[in-house]
Specification:
The protein is of the alpha/beta class. It contains four helices and ten strands, in the order ββαβαββαβαββββ.
């Protein structure tokens, strides 16, 4: 699953998606992803990533899945939220700013590597504000029928330029540049 340029400093929306367009099953369940894709399956993506920006919902799902050994080392973690948790998490920086400032803060922490955007709402905000350089999608061979869609209907049109597609086992990886 190559074709990742290390040190490019891009903002990349990273998604695993069912064939019918869902990034999470009902109840925001994401355990189905790890039937097909493990963190060690994409070492070049981890190597190219210096920081991650995610929303509070994605953070909470990841916390619930912590006992499933789904560790992914994407560098410094930033969570954009309206309400930081009462108990601080020493592994995460919680941000309560606007999306542009959150992206700038996380990109700075990425140290010249890519900033990975996770979470449906945060990714949609980044796309709406023209802050995304690339979209990386792992299409998994499953139909979920319902759940969290890749993008909300309110997102509007975003033109993309495909530049890579690969197949590794059951996973098809698609890469797109966001046309600005």
């Amino acid at each position: 699953m190559g074709d990742v340029n290390i040190g490019t400093g891009k903002t990349v929306v990273n998604r695993a998606m069912s064939l019918d367009g869902f990034i999470a099953a009902p109840g925001h369940a994401m355990d189905w992803i790890f039937e097909y894709l493990t963190a060690d399956a994409v070492p070049e993506v981890m190597a190219a990533t210096g920081a991650m920006l995610l929303g509070r919902g994605t953070y909470e799902v990841a916390k619930r899945m912590a006992d499933q050994d789904t560790t992914y080392d994407g560098g410094a973690q930033f969570v954009l939220t309206h309400e930081p948790p009462d108990e601080p998490d020493p592994t995460v920086t919680f941000l309560t700013c606007d999306i542009e400032e959150a992206v700038a803060t996380a990109r700075s922490a990425a140290g010249g590597k890519n900033l990975e955007i996770l979470g449906a709402d945060v990714a949609a905000q980044c796309l709406q504000h023209g802050l995304v350089d690339e979209i990386l999608v792992y299409v998994l061979p499953v139909l979920l029928g319902d759940g969290v869609r890749f993008s909300p209907p309110s997102l509007g049109r975003i033109d993309l330029e495909p530049f890579s597609n690969t197949q590794s086992g059951a996973v098809t990886t698609l890469r797109f540049r966001v046309r600005k």
